Amino acid sequence: MIAPSILAADFTRLGEEATAVSGPRGVGADWLHVDVMDAHFVPNLTIGLPVVQALAAATDIPLDCHLMIDDPDRWAVGYAEAGAYNVTVHAEAAEDPVGVARDLRAAGAKAGLSIKPATPLAPYVEALRHFDTLLVMSVEPGFGGQSFIPEVLDKVRAARRLVDTGHLTLLIEIDGGINDDTIEQAAEAGVDCFVAGSAVYQAADPAEAITRLRALARRRSPGR
Ligand code: DX5
Ligand code: ZN
């Protein structure tokens, strides 16, 4: 799965930018990744609930909201109610991750848990039994256009083993620095869903960039 990040899109034309990556299943974006930042959890401020509501009305692509915010225990459920398909909170910010997952699912959304590059996976394995997605950050959250950190692939491999052996049932997603040069190693490590901001929206043809990324990933993960 490919999830273009609208953080790299033209914010004056968000509806059109969503349309630019939409297409039939297996051709266009599988999810549209929406980076919500609060200038507290990360040193950047992006968009919030009203824009997510507007996007949900403007596109049929399932919205994948990545909340880089403090106190997600309080705010996350609002994004589910706004129509997001998957809502991901940060393990480092959530007081009660399992409680957040329960609230998100009760509101009809999938629940995601994200870990920053330096955050280990092991302490969260039990909590992850209550989640639908694990978002492994491959850059420090806060900004698009950074370089991929390959060391996080050890966590992807560990998560892949847990899924393949039936200990966890979730999608493994990766976010940060994914492009033509990095997607294959991520696919080989076991990623199911690839977030790509600059690699899609800074391409001359975003739809073609998605097709190319998907083909590269498939080469390394034929079974998925
Ligand atoms: C970073 C965001 C990413 C970002 C990825 O904090 O979570 O989703 O948009 O952008 P690229 O693909 O350019 O690294
Ligand atoms: Zn993101």
Summarize the model shown.
The chain is α/β, with parallel strands linked by helices and 224 residues long. It has helices at residues 14-20, 49-58, 72-81, 97-106, 125-128, 153-164, 183-189, 198-201, 206-220; strands at 2-4, 32-37, 63-68, 86-90, 110-115, 133-137, 171-175, 193-196.
Identify the notable features of this structure and list them briefly.
single chain; 224 residues; alpha/beta; TIM Barrel; 8 strands; 35% helix; globular
| Assembly state (oligomeric) | single chain
CATH architecture: Alpha-Beta Barrel
User: Low-confidence runs (pLDDT<50, min 5 residues)?
Assistant: none
> Taking all residues together, what is the mean pLDDT?
97
Residue share in β-strands: 15-25%
Residues in helix, %:
25-40%
The CATH topology label is TIM Barrel
CATH class: Alpha Beta
CATH homologous superfamily placement: Aldolase class I
| Rg calculated over all Cα atoms | 16 Å
Secondary-structure element pattern, one letter each: EHEHEHEHEHEHEHEHH
Largest sheet: 8 strands, parallel
Number of domains: 1
